[in-house]
Amino acid sequence: MDLGTIAATASTVVALSGVAAWAVQRDSLKVVREQNSDLRADISDKDRRHDEDERTIAQLRSDLEALARVVTNEVLIQAINDVLTHHHERSEVHFGEIKEILDKVQEWQNRHRES
């Protein structure tokens, strides 16, 4: 083999190596771009879900506050009902006592009219 053939062969090998390296880099760059695109889509999806979750949390907090008001009002109504029941029972006792007093006054008036 002469020097010209060796140089041509070496030049061809270097050129083929360069083309192969360029093809590998191109394919690697394509893969990196696809991964970047996928990651951006994932981030966008996560941002959308995060926004939905924030809205859901805000609605749940509002519902919880409304439920707390309802429960508080129910407890208050039950307490008022208990007090009213107690006062009603006491008023029945007093009404009975007042009725006895009025009956005695009526009897007394009737006796004094007859006399």
Notes on the protein architecture:
With 115 residues, the chain is mostly helical. The protein is 97% helix and 0% strand. It has one helix and no strands. The longest helix is centred in the middle third of the chain and has 112 residues. It is rod-shaped, with a radius of gyration of 49 Å. The model has no long low-confidence stretch (mean pLDDT 90).
Quickly describe the structure.
With 115 residues, this protein is an all-alpha fold. The chain has one helix at residues 3-114.
Topology:
Layout (H helix, E strand, L loop, with lengths): L2 H112 L1
Instruction: Sketch the topology as an H/E string, one letter per element.
Output: H
**What portion of residues belong to β-strands?**
under 5%
Q: What level of helicity do the residues show?
A: over 70%
In DSSP terms (H or I, runs of 4 or more residues), the helix count works out at 1
Major pleated sheet? none
In round numbers, the mean pLDDT is: 90
Alpha-carbon distance between the two ends: 165 Å
Low-confidence runs of at least 5 consecutive residues: none
General shape: rod-shaped
**Number of β-strand runs:** 0
Classify the secondary structure makeup into a structural class: mainly alpha
- What's the gyration radius in Å? 49 Å
